[in-house]
Amino acid sequence: MKAVQLYYPPEWAHCYGCGYLNAQGLRIETHWHPERGESETRFTPKPYHTAIPGFVYGGLLASLVDCHSTATAAAAKAQAEGLSLEAHPLRFVTASLKVDYLKPTPLGPELLLVGRAREVKGKKVVVETELFAEGVLTVRGEAVLVQIGEGFGRSGSAPGGG
Ligand SMILES: CCCCCCCC(=O)SCCNC(=O)CCNC(=O)[C@H](O)C(C)(C)COP(=O)(O)OP(=O)(O)OC[C@H]1O[C@@H](n2cnc3c(N)ncnc32)[C@H](O)[C@@H]1OP(=O)(O)O
């Protein structure tokens, strides 16, 4: 199964968290499971992603939730509209991100993020994400993602589109 991020067009593939063209980035890969309506991302933090010894830095966890959410939004929107990402490479940016750190996240094990779209409406998708370390839920996230169109971020252009 091809990761959602690999459908992003090159001009939108430089993101630090999820861009396949960012050699220094995290380059997370999110897989969509249409039958469950859920997304999954697996990521193993490096030893230098430390908060206090033995535990993962919260900013990294927020980045994982952030970029996992944008991919979940693209996949959920495509499914809701009956579109293929191959033909319609949807791209979302984060309008709002809330992260609840429920427990310290141990540094070492692979982390699993599971996402679901709670709302798909117009160009907006609301995504809930749970992050697990060795089966234990340690982080919960909620993000509002907005679909962007051609010209996003260019000087003088309005945001949005899609
Ligand atoms: C190029 C690819 C990069 C991918 C990076 C992946 C993750 C990231 O780190 S993104 C970087 C950080 N994010 C940004 O820089 C985005 C900056 N913000 C913007 O450009 C704009 O505010 C943008 C595009 C999010 C929304 O603008 P606009 O298109 O005018 O949205 P707008 O029409 O006002 O709102 C659309 C919907 O989103 C909702 N919304 C917008 N902002 C928010 C917010 N902060 N909180 C909650 N809801 C919001 C609106 O209420 C509206 O909902 P509804 O349809 O129910 O009324």
TrEMBL record:
Q: How does it sit in the membrane?
A: Peripheral membrane protein
Q: Name one GO cellular component term.
A: membrane
Per the UniProt entry, what are the Gene Ontology biological process annotations, in alphabetical order?
fatty acid metabolic process
Substrates-to-products reaction catalysed: decanoyl-CoA + H2O = decanoate + CoA + H(+); hexadecanoyl-CoA + H2O = hexadecanoate + CoA + H(+); (9Z)-octadecenoyl-CoA + H2O = (9Z)-octadecenoate + CoA + H(+); (5Z,8Z,11Z,14Z)-eicosatetraenoyl-CoA + H2O = (5Z,8Z,11Z,14Z)-eicosatetraenoate + CoA + H(+)
Q: Where is the Thioesterase domain?
A: 54-135
Source taxon at top rank: Bacteria
Keywords in alphabetical order: Apoptosis, Cell membrane, Cell projection, Cytoplasm, Fatty acid metabolism, Hydrolase, Lipid metabolism, Membrane, Transit peptide
Q: Which Gene3D superfamilies match?
A: Hotdog Thioesterase
SUPFAM superfamilies, per database record: Thioesterase/thiol ester dehydrase-isomerase
Q: What class of enzyme is it?
A: hydrolase
Location(s), subcellular: Cell projection, Ruffle membrane; Cytoplasm; Membrane
Keyword Cytoplasm annotated? yes
- InterPro entries given in the database record: HotDog_dom_sf (IPR029069), THEM4/THEM5_acyl-CoA_thioest (IPR052365), Thioestr_dom (IPR006683)
For this protein, what is the EC number? 3.1.2.2
User: What are the protein's GO molecular function terms?
Assistant: hydrolase activity
Which Pfam families does this entry report, sorted A to Z? 4HBT (PF03061)
Q: Which family does it belong to?
A: Belongs to the THEM4/THEM5 thioesterase family.
**What is the protein's given name?**
Acyl-coenzyme A thioesterase THEM4
